[in-house]
Write a structure and sequence with these properties.
Elements lengths: L2 H17 L6 H4 E8 L9 H14 L4 E10 L2 E11 L13 E13 L2 E9 L1 H8 L7
Parallel strand pairs: 1-5
Antiparallel strand pairs: 2-3, 3-4, 4-5
Amino acid sequence: MSVEENKDKIRRFVEEFWNKGNLESLNEHQAASYVHHDPGSPEITDREGFKQFAIMTRTGFPDFNVTIEDIIAEGDKVVTRWSVRGTHKGALGEIPPTGKEVTMTGITIDRIADGKVVEGWFHSDDLGFWQQLGVIPPMD
């Protein structure tokens, strides 16, 4: 695939999977052996594990919405700088709903092979996210 096709693949994935909540679209966009690297959580080593992560996220934030701020590609990798907005209306693991609207920013690097995302490196402002929810107090 060309770098433009790879960027379009990521744009479609964000829109269909994250913004529309179409969990079945994951099969089209992600390899079954997908690996998700995130320093803020345990490594996810397959597509089903990533789907469970998404279900937990969308349960906690049913209005979860991703905005792609920048997207850059070279070779088989696509870098996306994004922002997320959502309202904490459902349980997020053991954290009961707070009703708070939160925003978070981050960057993801996805590697694409044979038309599917096979690996992703994810980094986000986890501290700011937990502070907005009131789980971690703001720093002075």
